[in-house]
Design goal:
- It is a single chain.
- The protein is mainly β and 373 residues long.
- It has 2 domains: 269 residues, Thrombin, subunit H (Beta Barrel); 77 residues, Pdz3 Domain (Roll), CATH 2.30.42.10.
- Helices cover 11% and strands 42% of the residues.
- The protein has 4 helices and 25 strands.
- The strands form 4 sheets. A 6-stranded antiparallel beta barrel has the order 4-13-14-18-17-15. The protein has a 6-stranded antiparallel barrel with strand order 20-21-22-25-24-23.
- Strand 11 and strand 12 form a beta hairpin.
- The longest helix is centred in the last third of the chain and has 19 residues.
- The protein is elongated, with a radius of gyration of 22 Å.
Length: 373
């Protein structure tokens, strides 16, 4: 079997992420949670709290390193095997597809690439039963490994991934529950665009060392190094509205601000908190150009434009790695940066803070339920 695993490296750049994905709670079947948060049009459907009861959060802007291990392994490629005089692909013949999440072989739970390799190598060419999740549905497939002409080992013609790493930005944390939110969109596989089904993960401190400025047609990126292996926090949920988890160490102490409701936001001046060097965020001027409730994606609620001359000089606008950077308007957390416009890096999309709070509530409630059992 040919395997691929993206390992954690000291120097990393932001994952190229897909922003349309289901939700994955650590250890939970993706698609089985948080469906009730967003309606068919991507807008939160839970009741909005009264404005006087706005949650107070500590805005972020600090970068963090993301280390994730998947629940099961993600199928990221299929390849032919030279066996005898023929090129065959057992995985394709069995019905496996790129994007499938392989969770069991012969009834045994698997979470690592090496688990798949071992089952195939020890099959002796006998059929193996593979349980996969595809678009939220679980199904059984039957694969017969073949002996490779190259090394006489049994192979399945499949490439899988069990982990990923990258850099993102923390949007905020709740000073009472210590739940944090970041990115404003899902972590998805760099090759397939599929959501990475979270089994376990952590965030660590990062130091930004360089910036590749963006230009029209070529997004820029932040580059950095992981400062330590000591976790800053543990990941609990990977969702289309960002990643969420629980802090183990307080990353910074600044004044808490209220979270804005969507009806409080309007086109006009704003600021974003961004780290372009080191690990300390700075405030830069921006403009909210449009506020919309009609977008089909819950993380494309605002169009923002960078107006700060210094940030434009340093980065060209929004770059990869800024996902999750807080947007503030009138002293309140309006939301977070999620996308950059490829043909105009000075502009991009943002998610409402309100949408992120809906998911954060589920994280807090889910943890409370676990604590009572």
């Amino acid at each position: 079997m040919r395997l691929f695993s993206k390992t954690f490296a000291g120097v990393v750049s932001l994952l190229i992420l897909n922003f349309f994905a289901l939700t994955s709670i650590a250890g939970i079947n993706p698609g089985a949670a948080v469906k009730e948060v967003f309606g068919a049009n991507g807008i939160a459907i839970e009741d909005v709290e009264d404005a006087e009861q706005a949650r107070m959060v500590v805005p972020g802007g600090t970068p963090f390193g993301i280390k994730m291990h998947t629940r099961g392994v993600l199928v990221v490629g299929l390849s032919d095997i030279q066996s005898g005089n023929d090129n065959v692909n057992p995985a394709k013949d069995a019905g496996l597809k790129i994007g499938d999440i392989l969770i069991r072989i012969n009834g045994i739970i698997i979470n690592r690439n090496k688990d798949v390799s071992r089952f195939v190598a020890e099959s002796g060419g006998e059929e193996v039963e593979m349980t996969v999740i595809r678009e939220g549905d679980e199904m059984e497939l039957f694969l017969t490994p073949v002996k490779s002409e190259y090394d006489e080992a049994y192979k399945a013609g499949i490439w899988v991934r069990d982990s990923s790493a990258g850099i993102g930005t923390m949007t905020y944390y709740d000073p009472e529950s210590l739940v944090f939110a970041g990115l404003g969109h899902a972590v998805c596989d760099v090759d397939t665009g599929e959501l990475m089904p979270l089994f376990s993960g952590e965030i660590v401190d990062v130091n930004i060392t360089d910036v590749n400025a963006g230009i029209s047609g070529r997004p820029g990126e932040l580059k950095g190094v992981f400062l330590t292996d000591k976790p800053l926090g543990r990941l609990y949920l990977n969702s289309m509205a960002g990643i969420y988890g629980f802090l183990e160490n307080i990353p910074y102490h600044v004044k808490a601000v209220p979270m804005a409701r969507r009806e409080e936001l309007s086109p006009g001046p704003a600021e974003i908190l961004v780290t372009v060097s080191g690990n300390k965020p700075r405030s830069f001027n921006a403009m909210i150009e449009r506020v919309s409730n009609s977008e089909t994606s819950p993380n494309k609620n605002m169009v923002i434009k960078i107006t700060d001359p210094e940030l434009l000089r340093l980065c060209g606008g929004i770059v990869q790695g800024m996902s999750g950077s807080p947007i503030l308007q009138d002293g309140k957390l309006a939301g977070a940066v999620t996308h950059v416009f490829v043909n105009d890096p000075t502009r991009g999309y943002g998610i409402f803070a309100e949408n992120m709070e809906q998911v954060l509530n589920l994280v807090e409630n889910g943890q409370n339920e676990e604590d009572t059992h």
